[in-house]
Write a structure and sequence with these properties.
Recoverin, domain 1, 71% helix, odorant binding, 151 residues, disordered C terminus, PBP_GOBP_sf, mainly alpha, single chain
Length: 151
Amino acid sequence: STKSKSYNMLLTVLCLTLLAATATSAEISQDIITNIRNTIKDIKGPCLQSEGASETDLEDILSKGIYSTSRNLKCALKCLYIGTNIISSTGVINEANMKLKTGTINVNTQNAVFANCAGFTNADLCERVYEISKCTYRTLKGSFGATWLDT
């Protein structure tokens, strides 16, 4: 019946929620990476291409937390942040999006990312987003202390 299907679905969701809540930091971190990959998947290619940035440089950030100082990468990050509406093309941070797109549902971590990382004021938007991205990385590393974030 529809009622039992709804009940089973509810149980499944509850079980998954409990599993997620008890996951180790490494699993949480992998989830964060997966969530970020999903957030940028539709714009990653166009941003890398338009800025002439290397997929390897972006992959080094996602998988190892290693930031190249390439100008092209910095501007590709800007493109990603604008494309996901975390920041406007004029440099205005969208607080709600910045928090939601951290890759975690942990509200304390979301708030920490915003508090720590929204205040950069570099006139050059590529440089500013690069600093925001590195700050976000450090904040996530501090919150979860996960192995994938060790450089």
